[in-house]
Amino acid sequence: MNKMKMLPDEEVADEIVESWKKAGTNVRWEYADEATQQAEGPQAYILHVVDQDSKPIEGVVVNFCTDAACTPQETDETGTITYKADPYKYHLQIVEVPDGYSWDESFDMYTTPEYGEWVLRMKKD
């Protein structure tokens, strides 16, 4: 079965492929033509949370905040949050991490107003 994910750049693609390969999943990436990218692009905000060895981290809670409210989301077993909401430049706030992990307390991240994918690295203590 072939599945396709659109990623913002080669570095993110390499990181994700490497973490999936370490987990025993056979994956690869390749360039898609521009028409495919426009038609098949992500329709959500996708955040991959990994440690310094690119291993996914389950159970990280991140707030997706607008000027009016914050919506907490938790990473799944693949370290991924798929946040399906209206396009907006969301302010991301780390709320909770599993025992044994830490993050930079000065963390400050915003999404783009367009859907896309990001990778967030945390430190395994």
Order of strands, widest sheet: 3-2-5-7
**Rg over CA atoms:** 15 Å
Beginning-to-end CA distance, first to last residue? 37 Å
Topology order in helix (H) and strand (E) letters: HHEEEEEEEEE
- Segments where pLDDT lies below 50 for 5+ residues? none
Overall mean pLDDT stands at 84
Largest sheet: 4 strands, antiparallel
Discrete helix count:
2
Helix content: 10-25%
Global geometry: globular
Structural class: alpha+beta
- Proportion of β residues? 25-35%
Give the number of DSSP strands.
Answer: 9
Structure characterization notes:
- The structure is a single chain.
- With 125 residues, this protein is of the alpha+beta class.
- 16% of the residues lie in helices and 30% in strands.
- The chain has a four-stranded antiparallel sheet, with no helix packed on it.
- Strand 2 and strand 3 form a beta hairpin.
- The chain is globular.
- The N and C termini lie far apart (37 Å).
Looking at this protein, list some descriptive labels:
four-stranded antiparallel sheet; alpha+beta; 125 residues; 9 strands
Would you summarize the structure shown here?
The chain is built from 2 helices and 9 strands, in the order ααβββββββββ.
